[in-house]
Design goal:
It is globular, with a radius of gyration of 17 Å. It has a 6-stranded mixed sheet, sandwiched between helices. By secondary structure, the protein is α/β, with parallel strands linked by helices. The longest helix is centred in the N-terminal third of the chain and has 19 residues. The chain has a single domain, classed as Glutaredoxin (3-Layer(aba) Sandwich). Helix content is 46%, strand content 19%.
Length: 175
């Protein structure tokens, strides 16, 4: 017979990893900044450049720029560029809004939900200049960390911002 912790582990694994895939999505929920930070560190170990975009389904500018991040993901994933879309939606929106939104928008970049209510503690850990407004983007490239608060108006704007971290991987798209 397995210990109780083993059974709880398997049940939680089913809930977190298997059930979302059955529903067509794999969107983990991180409840603490330490969990999100561990995921970002893991992605840094696996990739040359990690682009972390903080967004929400209720944020108009966030939704407007998501296709640009999706395009970066599609074009450069094989070259060691990882796009991680961190949803700051309310936790009760997970099944009603977030999963359908990701599915309807055909988002293939990794999406996670982050629901740590201690914003005053974790926001400055993301970047000291961030005031918490959305959208916000963090780029990690080797030992370099760069932050951008606000919406990217076009794919070209995003690529220009990313160019110092990705050169010679990308050049701005033709208009």
């Amino acid at each position: 017979m397995h210990p109780r912790w083993y059974t709880l582990f398997l049940v939680s694994l089913l809930h977190i990893a298997v059930l979302p895939r059955i529903l067509g999505q794999n969107i983990p929920i991180y409840s603490t900044y330490a969990e999100l930070e561990a995921r970002i560190a893991f992605e840094q170990d696996q990739n040359n450049t990690v682009i972390v975009n903080f967004w929400a389904t209720w944020c108009g500018p966030c939704v407007a720029e998501l296709p640009y991040f999706e395009e970066i993901h599609r074009k450069y994933a094989e070259q060691g560029v990882k796009v991680l879309l961190v949803s700051l939606d309310f936790r009760h929106y997970y099944e009603k809004k977030l999963i359908p939104f990701v599915k309807n928008k055909d988002i293939t970049a990794d999406v996670v939900m982050f629901s740590d209510p201690k914003q005053q503690a974790w926001i400055p850990k993301v970047h000291e200049s961030w005031d918490g407004a959305l959208p916000a983007t963090l780029v990690l490239h080797h030992n370099t960390k760069c932050f951008h608060q606000g919406e990217f108006e076009s794919l070209e704007d995003l690529e220009i911002f990313l160019m110092p971290f990705l050169s010679p991987v990308i050049a701005p798209s033709d208009k």
